[in-house]
Amino acid sequence: MNVGIFTNAYKPIISGVVNSIFLFKQGLTQLGHNVYVFAPGFPGYKDDESHVYRFRSISITQKVKFPLAIPLSNRIAKIIPDMKLEIIHTQHPYILGEVGASYAKKFKIPLVYTFHTQFEQYSHYIPFNQDIVKMLARLSVINYTKKCDCIITPAPSIMELLKSYGIKQRVEVLPNAIDLSSFENPDRHMIRTKYSIGHNDTVLINVGRLGLEKNLAFMLHAFKIITQKAHNVKLMIVGEGPEENALKDLASEIGLGKKVIFTGRIDYHEIPYYYGAADIFIMTSVTEVKPLAILEAMASGLPMVAVAASGSSDTITSGLDGILTELNIEDFASETLKLIENNDLRKKMGHHAKQTAAKYSIISTSKKLAQIYEDLIKTKHRKAKN
Fold it and tell me: Regarding beta strands 150-153 and 260-264, do their DSSP bridges make them parallel or antiparallel, or are they unpaired?
């Protein structure tokens, strides 16, 4: 098959969506398919992989490094017919998502859209009436899905959200892929040495974008309680984002000092070393769809503590490979302390976490995606004949 993927974010941006696209591209290519990625250009970045085509882009702000595509390109318009695309898969319902939809209509081929993000939960980035912004975000998704032949969601719980939107199109649940080999035997000492972490220190880790929607202030307040009851414990927050300075200020204000390590931006190929240095993965976000960081941490053998929400509850089996808590700071701190204080329980849950992660291998999930594509193409051809 010849597959066109249209996305508003791609490397060098580090995010779960970008990683998901890259891993599915890798998996589908290994299965013998041709995958073409269309994404915004990123200033100063040169692609090191084939079949990536960039639209010119503009940067709205230097604070958030997320260039927006200018959705017009004569160069791409000239070469795209020669690719003989059989299906188009978009990752967002706007900008390049609309470009992908227009090409699917022009070529009369199936359009697939992956619902990665609950856009309503990101309304705080737009300084306007929040009820109106959330309503418009919902409508943009609803209107876009009407153009689609299939919507993919990485999480079963999102099916109910899509139903509440009144979406009638075909919906398939397909979890994000993960490269298990990258996380199998992580080095434990390199990152601990880099940050002067003691041999007996218990390290909690969170990996992801430092945005308001990630609920990281909640995490810091819970960690404050943890440090009052457990010694030799550190929290490592891996990533960058618009809330980084505010979170550093908060950590200082509540007296966490050197107990919290903010790593800043880390190249993705180095991320396994950070998981390797940790003992427990923690997540407090309630806006995720299917966070790749959870799968990566599981593949690294880390037990989980997470606030129960769609993204975590669809992956973690509480009491087996992790612990799910209420959205309550004291409850979260208490459950995390159980793992900190019980090394045998950590090892047991970490073992089960690796078993859970094995279900999400690149080839396994890519085969399922290819089957969805093939069925949609056959259905489209059959309808065209009738």
Answer: unpaired
